[in-house]
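Hey, I'm writing a tutorial for new members on how sequence and structure tokens pair up, and I'd like a real worked example in the thread rather than a made-up one. If someone can provide the structure for the chain below, I'll link this post from the tutorial.
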Amino acid sequence: MGHGPAGYEEDTAVDEHGEPASPAPTPARPAESRPLRAHAQRNRDALLTAAREAFTAGESDIHVEEIARRAGVGVGTFYRHFATREAVIEAVYDERIQNLCHRAPDLLESLPPHEALRVFMEQLVQHAVESRSMAVALKTVMDLGSPVFNQGREAMSDTIGQLMAAGVADGTIRADVTADTVFRAMGGICASHDQPGWEKAALDVMHLIHDGLRHTDPSP
């Protein structure tokens, strides 16, 4: 299902979209890449936006050429940022995880820690709801053994840990439950996202978990 850059003609020094002509390998994680020039960053952002909108609309089989067209760039520009179609799926998923986890500091600034944790847990359920439309595209990447999913799970578990630690520090969250346990419980809830009435049931169970975290440690 992968699409590679073979077959398109390279431009001269700079193409019509302001991109450097020579393709450069794209790292697995965007955060680790070298800083892009402003026009190149705009092109990359436009490609990500076009891909994200397509995947979340259920267009799991959208072609590279169509993503580039909607982004207003050429196919060559696409391949200068993403080596394969699967690479842009990974980037969309990674972007969504980073956006989700980066909300935690703002939650802690505006809410008491136990409330910040509750809101983030609700956002995890919403993230699963929004991921349903990407399921087919994500399965393609998952079948290839991409590390982006383990990285995403670690990021979400770490964020839960930060919020729980703040709650433990102010005495509103019990200290005998680990972030990994909470994340695994949330994963169990979200695994049934294709069932009728799942979202309401998931939120109900999530609130039970949160209520349990508010209780005092039962051990002597």
